[in-house]
Every structure is written in structure tokens, then in C-alpha cells.
Amino acid sequence: MAQDFVREEDKKTGKVLLRGKITFDNLLQETSCKWLETGAKSYQPNRNAVDELSR
């Protein structure tokens, strides 16, 4: 599948910008988003909160 986003550098800050349609899986593979992978893997949903929001 073709990439639907581009990786650019912000001219003011030098930080990475991702522009376009991007999937969660794309973000997990993006080197500038390694913090996201760590957080996503360790996330444990609160069952009571999920049940309450699902009503």
C-alpha cells in the first residue's frame, strides 16, 4: 500500500512533521513516534470506565 503521508521538517523548529492521511500502524512505525509505541503497548484500559462510556 502506498504511503498517504509525507514526512517533513518544520522550518522553524526543525522537528518532524507528518502531513496527510496516516494510520495508527504508520505512527507506530514512524521513528519520530517511538514514545507512542511504548505507551500503546503498556496501556491498560479501565474496564469500569469503558463499560460506563459504552452505555
Descriptive notes:
This protein has a two-stranded antiparallel sheet with strand order 1-2. It contains three helices and two strands. The protein has helices at 24-29, 34-42, 47-53; strands at residues 5-9, 16-20. 40% of the residues lie in helices and 18% in strands. The chain has one domain. It is of the alpha+beta class and 55 residues long. The longest helix is centred in the last third of the chain and has 9 residues, at 34-42.
How many helical elements?
3
Sheet/helix structural class: alpha+beta
**How much of the sequence is in beta strands?**
15-25%
Range of helix content: 40-55%
Shape: elongated
Side-by-side strand order of the widest sheet: 1-2
Give the total of domains: 1
User: What composes the largest sheet?
Assistant: 2 strands, antiparallel
Distance between the termini: 37 Å
Show unreliable segments. Answer: none
Number of strands: 2
Radius of gyration: 16 Å
Order of helices and strands: EEHHH
Provide mean pLDDT, rounded.
89
Summarize the structure.
The protein has 3 helices and 2 strands.
Features:
55 residues; alpha+beta; 40% helix
Architecture blueprint of SSEs:
Blueprint: E1 5-9, E2 16-20, H1 24-29, H2 34-42, H3 47-53
Antiparallel strand pairs: 1-2
